[in-house]
Design goal:
This is Membrane protein DUF2238. This protein is mainly α and about 180 residues long. The protein has 2 domains: about 70 residues; about 110 residues, no CATH class. It contains 8 helices and no strands. Helix 3 packs antiparallel against helix 5 and helix 6 packs antiparallel against helix 7. It starts with 5 loop residues before the first helix and ends with a helix.
């Protein structure tokens, strides 16, 4: 396998894991281990370069923003990250479904495009819920410093759903090349 631009992000994730474990502690190490697992997905799937870079970079940014206190310093950043990351996770999830033939990969007529957008939004909604459950588990069992609460959770879910909705629209109107994993 030859190197691709996303491998720079993956190398940064490996470095972040080392820093997390050695300098920041076990919770940070676990977070960066999750990020490393996430940034490997596009590589194994051979996703388009732009999606690979955006997906991996957003996961890495989300983790570092948490560790460096950026969410407290810039309150709207948390919502932006939830929108962007959830949208990108939804895109990758839908591509996995297409490649696994759980969704049709051919040319899509109008109604099928609406279905694709709705499916993307559903995948994003599910990933947003899992993310929030992860935050709650982290807060409850690992580190009370992880910000949870009704308002935070609802806002995170709303912005995640918004990001997934935008992604669904983009995937539904875009050329079918994304479904085949080619750079377009």
């Amino acid at each position: 396998m030859s190197l691709v631009p996303g491998d720079v992000v993956r190398a940064a994730a490996v470095g972040s894991l080392a820093v997390g474990i050695v300098a920041l502690g076990g919770v940070a190490g676990a977070l960066f281990l999750l990020v490393l697992g996430g940034v490997l997905v596009p590589r194994f799937l051979g996703l388009p370069t732009a999606l690979d870079l955006c997906f991996g970079s957003s996961l890495l940014l989300a983790a570092w923003a948490s560790q460096l206190g950026w969410y407290e310093a810039v309150p709207w950043l948390d919502l932006l990250v939830h929108a962007v990351c959830t949208g990108l996770v939804a895109a990758v999830g839908v591509i996995i479904m297409v490649r696994g033939q759980a969704l049709e990969a051919g040319a899509l007529p109008g109604r099928a495009r609406v279905g694709l957008a709705a499916t993307t939004m559903g995948v994003g909604a599910l990933s947003a819920i899992v993310w929030e459950l992860g935050e709650w588990v982290g807060h409850t069992y690992l580190d009370e410093g992880i910000d949870v609460g009704y308002t935070d959770t609802i806002a995170d879910l709303a912005f995640g759903l918004f990001g997934a909705m935008l992604t669904g629209v983009v995937l539904a109107v875009r050329d079918p090349a994304w479904r085949l994993g080619r750079d377009a």
